[in-house]
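Good morning,

Attaching, inline, the backbone tokens for the sequence recovery test we're adding to the shared suite. The designed sequence is right after.
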């Protein structure tokens, strides 16, 4: 395996900026709502096209979101090391800067990993995701994992073209996060409750957390894990591999 680092600075297309105010410009010419709708509509079209391409290619794209410090990278290392002998995996790590996570994934698992620099953006959209996919080493891959920028707001608003949305909620964040960040929990097919090993030290009620999640999204699957001890990661691996497309031949 090549040791060459791949760090890609993404170009953000489609984000429009409002014109600078001018005294002679009437207020009704600043179409904030219309501009926002146009950006989302363009992204939805791009996302649907990318999703169809990936389906035809037999590649499952997992979009993994969370707040900073929830344990995304550590959870991925535990997960990938359980499935990499039977699933062809690649990882795209998205951050505003640095390549720390991509290096960590590659060194701890041996699977291809690239770093996506978002240029200050707090999320990825479908076009940015496509740029990352186009810069992965030659596949094919059964599973590509996109570790999105750490944020509970912006990433939930933009469809990346993924096959599945997942998020990690860590115990120290509290069991009330589904109430405070409804969109994130609404768009996710899977919620991983991480750091269960420290649950005795926090006012965190797992059943109350599940209730709050299912109130937002009755179809969501909730899997408790400890990325530190590995508890629950086998169940996570079984759930994910069950979603992957069957190989031909």
């Amino acid at each position: 395996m090549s040791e060459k680092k791949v760090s890609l600075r993404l170009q953000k297309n489609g984000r429009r900026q409002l014109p600078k105010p001018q005294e002679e410009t009437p207020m009704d010419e600043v179409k904030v709502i219309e501009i926002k709708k146009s950006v989302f509509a363009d992204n939805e079209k791009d996302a649907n096209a990318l999703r169809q391409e990936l389906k035809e290619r037999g590649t499952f794209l997992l979009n993994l979101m969370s707040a900073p410090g929830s344990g995304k990278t550590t959870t991925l290392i535990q997960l990938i090391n359980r499935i990499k002998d039977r699933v062809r995996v690649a990882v795209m790590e998205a951050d505003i800067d640095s390549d720390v996570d991509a290096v960590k994934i590659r060194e701890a698992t041996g699977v291809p990993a690239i770093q996506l620099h978002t240029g200050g953006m707090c999320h990825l959209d479908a076009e940015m995701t496509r740029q990352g996919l186009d810069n992965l080493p030659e596949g094919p891959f059964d599973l590509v994992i996109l570790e999105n920028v750490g944020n509970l707001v912006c990433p939930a608003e933009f469809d990346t073209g993924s096959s599945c949305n997942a998020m990690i909620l860590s115990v120290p964040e509290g069991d009330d996060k589904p109430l405070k960040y409804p969109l994130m929990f609404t768009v996710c097919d899977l919620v991983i409750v991480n750091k269960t090993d420290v649950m005795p030290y926090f006012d965190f009620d797992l059943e109350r957390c599940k209730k709050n999640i299912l109130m937002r999204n009755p179809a969501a699957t909730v899997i408790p894990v400890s990325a530190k001890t590995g508890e629950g990661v086998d169940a996570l691996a079984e759930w994910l591999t069950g979603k992957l497309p069957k190989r031909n031949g």
